[in-house]
């Protein structure tokens, strides 16, 4: 229904007996924990799945600059402004490493951006929610970067070399991002009653969208089984969501804030929290383009791309001239 590029049937996990000799040898390399490099042979499905996942991940980092960028001019102090600027710049860097990793698979950054702008490639659902107050910037760092790290730390062990190496650096920076968000939340939650109320309101609005970042429940996840057998993904969506809840609830308690879930309860037996699922119909609506900010986000990206055309054209013209001059000199 909502899957793109790789259809469900083609994505069925095949038994080793159904594989060609090349595919079997490839799967054995994955099972031994070897990294796959761009010039190695790989099944077409592996390549396509990686382009989809890395491409979506890159788009998320780039589109993800918008909700926080919205607050750079309104940060409450010079120090907060400088920190936020650095954080938003880091996200741009993450997008660039990831586009480079995708390009090693034979797709260009321009092609990926074209697909994004045509609505044919996704970015994370979370960035279709608005940042209404300064406390939201705290909640984004604490919860959104917190969820991103939960997902990305295991991806450092993903089977594709360039993706796994990009993740190592990205995770280091995300961990700083998460702490700066928590630091904002500490100030707000421990501030005046009005600031505390803003912090609680930000948690109320960002809690369920953050849980959605991990993707649909395992029974609805189209790609998990195949991606896990190729070690493109290391954990299921539900495993990571559970770990995120278990890590985040004590942090909310420390802040003196209440997680907006009546069903939230420690379960001794499973050694984790029981919690309410997000509203999955809302998630699928956001994926279809009907979230609160989908149109605004895509319009902003398309405008930035069009406004930057002269810079790209200038750089290409300079590169062409340099090549001609070098060739003439040789
Ligand atoms: N939003 O079968 P699955 C960040 C789609 S980085 C939108 O479970 P899969 C840093 C999925 O693509 C955040 N779409 O899919 C930051 C598929 O549709 P398709 C991004 C989603 O790939 C912080 C369909 O649903 N992180 O935040 C979402 O096995 C602050 C079926 O789902 C990554 O991309 C969603 N939340 O698992 C930046 C990490 N969930 O493609 C700025 C790498 C699912 O067939 C500020 N990615 N879908 O049309 C992954 O780990 C995986 O791709 C998942 C989804 C876990 C996201």
TrEMBL record:
Residues in the signal sequence: none
Entry's Gene Ontology molecular function annotations? phenylacetyl-CoA 1,2-epoxidase activity
Q: Which Pfam families match?
A: PaaA_PaaC
A Gene Ontology biological process in which this protein takes part is:
phenylacetate catabolic process
Naturally occurring in which organism (per UniProt)? Roseibium marinum
Identify the domain of life.
Bacteria
The family database entries (SUPFAM superfamilies) matched by this protein are listed as: Ferritin-like (SSF47240)
GO cellular-component terms in the record? cytosol
- Protein's recorded name: Ring-1,2-phenylacetyl-CoA epoxidase subunit PaaA
């Amino acid at each position: 229904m909502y899957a793109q590029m790789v259809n469900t049937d083609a994505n069925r996990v095949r038994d080793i007996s159904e594989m060609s000799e090349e595919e079997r040898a490839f799967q054995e390399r994955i099972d031994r924990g070897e990294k796959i490099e761009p010039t190695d042979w790989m099944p077409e499905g592996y390549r396509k799945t990686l382009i989809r996942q890395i491409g979506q991940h890159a788009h998320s980092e780039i589109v993800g600059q918008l909700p926080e960028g919205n607050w750079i001019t309104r940060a409450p102090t010079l120090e907060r402004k400088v920190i936020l600027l650095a954080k938003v710049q880091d996200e741009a860097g993450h997008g660039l490493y990831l586009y480079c990793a995708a390009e090693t698979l034979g797709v260009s950054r321009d092609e990926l951006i074209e697909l994004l702008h045509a609505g044919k490639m996704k970015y994370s659902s979370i960035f279709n929610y608005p940042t209404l107050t300064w406390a939201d910037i705290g909640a984004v760092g604490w919860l959104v970067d917190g969820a991103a790290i939960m997902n990305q730390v295991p991806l450092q062990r993903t089977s594709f070399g360039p993706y796994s190496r990009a993740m190592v650096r990205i995770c280091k920076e995300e961990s700083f991002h998460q702490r700066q968000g928590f630091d904002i939340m500490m100030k707000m939650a421990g501030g005046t009653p009005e600031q505390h109320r803003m912090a609680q309101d930000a948690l109320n609005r960002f809690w369920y969208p953050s849980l959605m970042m991990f993707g649909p429940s395992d029974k609805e996840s189209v790609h998990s089984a195949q991606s896990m057998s190729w070690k493109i993904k290391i954990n299921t969506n539900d495993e990571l969501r559970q770990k995120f809840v278990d890590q985040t609830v004590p942090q909310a308690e420390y802040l003196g804030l209440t997680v907006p879930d009546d069903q939230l309860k420690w379960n001794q037996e499973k050694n984790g929290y029981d919690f309410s699922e997000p509203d999955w119909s809302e998630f699928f609506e956001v994926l279809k383009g009907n979230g609160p900010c989908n149109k605004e986000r895509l319009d902003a990206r398309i405008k930035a791309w069009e406004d930057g055309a002269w810079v790209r054209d200038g750089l290409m013209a300079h590169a062409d001239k340099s090549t001609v001059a070098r060739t003439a000199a040789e």
